[in-house]
Amino acid sequence: MNAPYGYLTTVSVLAVWTLVSLVAPRRPRPAAMLAFYLTVVLGELPFMGLAWLLAATVLALVQGDLTSPFVAGAAAVPAAGLCLVAWRGRRALPAVQQAMGTVPVSRRLPYARILLSPFLRRRRAVERIPGLAYGPAGRRNLLDVYRHRSRPTGAPVLIHFHGGAYQGGRKNSQSLPLLYRLADQGWVCVSANYRLRPDATFHDHLVDAKRVIAWVREHGPAYGADPGRIILAGSSAGAHLSALAALTPDDPAFQPGFESVDTSVTAVIGLGGYYGRYHDTDPRTSPLAHVRPDAPPFLLVHGDHDTLVPAEDAREFAERLREVSDQPVVYAELPGGQHGFDLFDSLRFHAVINAIEAFTARVLSPAFRP
Questions:
Q1: Which residue of 44, 138, 224, 356 shows the fewest CB atoms closer than 10 Å?
Q2: Annotation marks residue 365 as catalytic
């Protein structure tokens, strides 16, 4: 009898894919980049791999290809590995609970959404108002607003900046489960483009971030926002940009033409953030160079298996903030978390969203004291 090469190929591909998800290489750089692209989906959505493996196994069984014990047991290896990937994703919840200390974090996770519709991010109760201009730079100065269809007023604001090493990326692509969850709960959420390399410089990026804050101050109330309660959030390079914007409030050098606008924010959330020098240039382009006693509260979340931005760098930034800042600094490290963990409705990211809800509830509380 001929060997079921098709089935064994599927099992082998899944086994290798799962292995890279579990022990992703961090060096050399090309291998780390390849590991990221290979594992960003499977590492967050191992149930998809298990579903694929189950479907292939059922098909092979129906076709009578599982007569050999070796063939029948081949699926056990990737199945065990995928279960381990899922278990590490589940460990994100206790990790963020520990990081939050005495601040309670909800244990509830939307398992139906995670298992059945991890790519279906939209929610009926939320409307997205796309393509609003906040500056003069065309499509790179556009933002989207997410709000509840009931149009609440006086709502807290989350501004999110995408990642992409300042060279790529776009609004409406990252942290969407977070934007839709908060908007569903009555927040006004903003996702903004900003100018990118090589046409833009470090100064241009930061000016754009400040322009978004200024836009919320002026136009946010028309969309139900409370411009006095602004949380900045970002993914990867967007976390770098958010940190810099928050640590340089009201700096006229980054507010040309709107120097008098208040660009301070209530808190910052960094997701898989980079906090070093901007493309290895001036040290002052790193958030580390701008840490200050009056920095706002920070919540920094990073995966311990991030192959693009080592967790050690995020940990260093958190430690430096704690040394200087008078405000709370929360740092959570996610077991098995890869770069880009905020892209999907996953166990890991929804645990992080629970922590974000707890963190923002604390810093927005009228009774909040650092």
A1: 138
A2: no
